[in-house]
Design a protein that fits this description.
The complex is a heterodimer of chains A (about 100) and B (about 475). By secondary structure, chain A is mainly alpha-helical. Chain A has helices at about 5-20, 30-40, 45-50, 55-85. The termini of chain A are far apart. In chain B, about 60% of the residues lie in helices and about 5% in strands. Chain B starts with a helix and ends with a helix. The chains are: A mainly alpha (about 100), B alpha/beta (about 475).
Chain lengths: ~100, ~475
């Protein structure tokens, strides 16, 4: 990937992110933040590549921590987002409260 | 061309293809998550994207250390899975902060591996590694502080004169060291280590002075920063999936941060540099009057014979896990022919939209939930405004007292109701530390106690009316 192509990708991705989120209702702010938090868990693939190319003990140690943190970001981000969005299936239906 | 080289080339193509699919799935997933109707399927799309990218990355040509990679994924994944499943809905915001900090730390770790290795890949690559490294590290330590604050582990907001100047000096120091590393002026491990150490300190000192009430905006900002750091490290590794996903989150997160700050009527600069969120100095215009207590049976009668009741839930209700009991109480009132509505302030709970999630969990139908713009005109026609664990969002000084830190924040006009009942655990001030003038009004009565127990008592009282 040449520098200018990378720059194009950067610009287009930035516009995409902006367009995708605009006009989102307030009730989705928290789940959406959590969802985008999950998406940057893609750092996992970078951490895997970094650890996969590590040679010295120091590089391996840092790489290991990196993969561990990234896996936490991806898995944790998915679980909490899924749990939050789970609530939205209740929308529109009458209460399923304690004596409903 | 030898067979292995051809194999590696086609493998690389396969991996690139999988990242393309991942980028597509992420964008579709985020788009679906931005509408309530499709939100639930959105996370499934994005999750599929993550799975595809992770599996194909194992095929990376020349990759070693497979046992370490596998072990790190399992350990990190299992810890996050268990903690994510267990965390209470009320504690969601700090959990997001924690996972976000982990992502920032991972981006910083990638930068660290590259920089410690000391291989020179040109100014552009090393500059991006350094910038991604500093952003990721700040997001890491800053998110941990945000987690600590919301979790109640850090209660005080450290603030002293000249703080912004000191932060600026630390930033300049980190940038200077980073510049030295990126330009190969001095890229020894000692310099790299000091660079990361300074960035870590910066995240801490930047976040410590910010009050708890502003934390959601800050977490959202760090979320955007982590995205940006991931994007930059993606350039370093020549990894299109990271560039696209990181940049999309970076810009989407920035917009989301602005929307949140707007919902709280605050500017981002204000949040970061003005130190709001707990008591700075005593606000002028002391509230006068007395708190007038009331007992549950009296409130029960008042509610039972009301025509219209507006419930204003706050974080206190969520902490007491009272939403189910409160909804039971409201169903009882609805059965008696009382009109019941829930008024949700944009920042009720700990984050915009947090309270809607909590009420949905309790089974409250959406058509009973109104937001600030819809409901504010209706308070004048309400017989009772039932405030449950909410405080700052109904404080009328936001309308009147220019010296108050929350002046100008849109509030719910609960004080306009004929009767105001405040269910509150004790006499403490709100999250912002500001005394609430609403509690001292003539039409306000205080009902002290744990929200869940009080709701139970109210249910008994209403049942006893007939």
């Amino acid at each position: 990937m040449t520098g200018i192509v990378a720059l194009y990708i950067f610009m287009l991705a930035a516009f995409t992110g902006y367009e995708v989120i605009s006009r989102v209702p307030v009730i989705l702010h928290t789940p959406l933040m959590s969802g985008s938090n999950f998406v940057h868990g893609i750092v996992l693939v970078g951490a895997m590549v970094a650890l996969g190319a590590a040679h010295t003990p120091l590089e391996k140690a840092i790489g290991f921590v990196g993969v561990l943190l990234a896996a936490g970001n991806a898995v944790g981000g998915y679980v909490v987002t899924e749990r939050m969005l789970e609530m939205f299936k209740a929308s529109g239906r009458a209460g399923r409260g304690s004596h409903g | 061309m030898s067979g292995t080289a051809g194999g590696a080339a086609s493998m690389a193509l396969l991996i690139q293809g999988s990242y393309f699919v991942t980028a597509f799935l992420f964008i579709v997933g985020l788009k679906r998550m931005s509408s309530p109707v499709t939100a639930r399927s959105g996370i499934l799309w994005a999750g599929a994207g993550m799975l595809v990218a992770t599996i194909f990355t194992f095929l990376y040509p020349g990759m070693t250390n497979y046992p370490l990679i596998g072990a790190a994924i399992v350990v990190g994944g299992v810890i996050a899975w268990v903690s994510g499943k267990r965390v209470a809905m009320t504690n969601m915001p700090q959990m997001i902060a924690l996972y976000n900090g982990m992502g920032g730390g991972a981006a910083a770790a990638i930068a660290a591996v590259e920089l410690y290795r000391g291989e020179w890949h040109g100014y552009a690559a090393s500059t991006l590694a350094v910038v991604g490294g500093i952003i990721g590290t700040v997001s890491f330590s800053g998110s941990l502080i945000a987690f600590g604050k919301l979790q109640g582990l850090i209660n005080r907001s450290l603030r002293f004169p000249g703080q912004q100047l000191i932060n600026l000096i630390i930033l300049a120091g980190a940038l200077g060291l980073g510049g030295a590393v990126a330009s190969q002026l001095d890229a020894t491990p000692a310099v790299v280590t000091s660079f990361f150490a300074l960035a870590l300190v910066l995240g801490v000192t930047m976040t410590l002075p910010i009050g708890g009430a502003d934390m959601p905006v800050v977490i959202s900002l760090y979320n955007a920063l982590t995205g940006l750091a991931v994007g930059f490290e993606g350039f370093v590794l020549n990894n299109a999936a990271m560039i696209i996903a990181g940049t999309v989150v970076g810009s989407a997160g920035t917009l989301l941060t602005q929307l949140m700050a707007k919902a709280m009527n605050r500017s981002l600069g204000n949040v970061l540099f003005s130190g709001f969120g707990d008591t700075g100095g005593a606000p002028s215009g002391e509230v006068t009057g007395s708190l007038k207590p009331i007992e549950a049976p009296d409130v029960g009668v008042m509610l039972a014979f009301a025509q219209k009741v507006i419930v204003v839930p706050g974080y206190g209700m969520a902490v007491a896990q009272a939403q189910h009991k409160i909804w039971e109480l409201c169903q009882l009132l609805i059965d008696r022919g009382v009109t019941v509505k829930f008024a949700i302030h944009p920042v009720a709970g700990r984050m915009p939209g947090h309270m809607n999630v909590l009420l949905a969990e309790a089974g409250v139908p959406y058509d009973l939930i109104a937001d600030l713009d819809e409901i504010n005109a209706e308070f004048e026609t309400a017989d009772v405004a039932l405030i449950i664990g909410a405080n700052d969002v109904v404080n009328p000084v936001a309308r009147t007292d220019k010296s108050s830190p929350i002046y100008g924040m849109p509030i719910l006009n609960a004080d306009k109701a004929k009767n105001v009942i405040v269910i509150k655990r004790g006499r403490g001030a709100g999250f912002s530390g500001i005394e609430n003038a609403l509690f001292y009004l003539d039409n306000t009565r205080m009902l002290y106690g744990d929200a869940q127990k009080v709701a139970g008592a109210l249910i008994q009282a209403i049942k006893a009316v007939d």
